[in-house]
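Minutes, project check-in
Item: structure for the 137-residue chain
Input as provided by the requester:
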Amino acid sequence: MSEPTVKRFMYINRRAPYGTVYSVEGLEVALIGAAFEQDVCMAFIDDGVYQLKKDQDTSATGIKNFSPAYRALGDYDVTRLYVEGESLQARGLTEDDLMALTYEDEDDDWAEKPSIRLVSREELSGLIDQQDVILHF
């Protein structure tokens, strides 16, 4: 009997982190999928790039800041977070404005490596084509 084929899942996040439930639910679904050993990666485009912005302060809004939960992704082997460079640039952001999210690479003596990968729109399109399942949030 052959091993079941692992499907590749990409969770595309294109909405700002607060104001709707899409962002927090996208993160939760990605974590749940990874907990069930799906091959998970995430993409952040349009206003979704704000989800990874460092130093988020929601105290004036009364909304809980869920951005620290992104640090758990590496623990669930979600190590590929693709950020579209054009979306960052259009919002006046750079890679330096994003959280420093990392994972420990067990194949490289547990070296700590960055999870965020800045990609062009064209590169992201190619990555999307390689996925078996795409979920939009």
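Outcome recorded: The mean pLDDT is 94.
No further action items on this chain.
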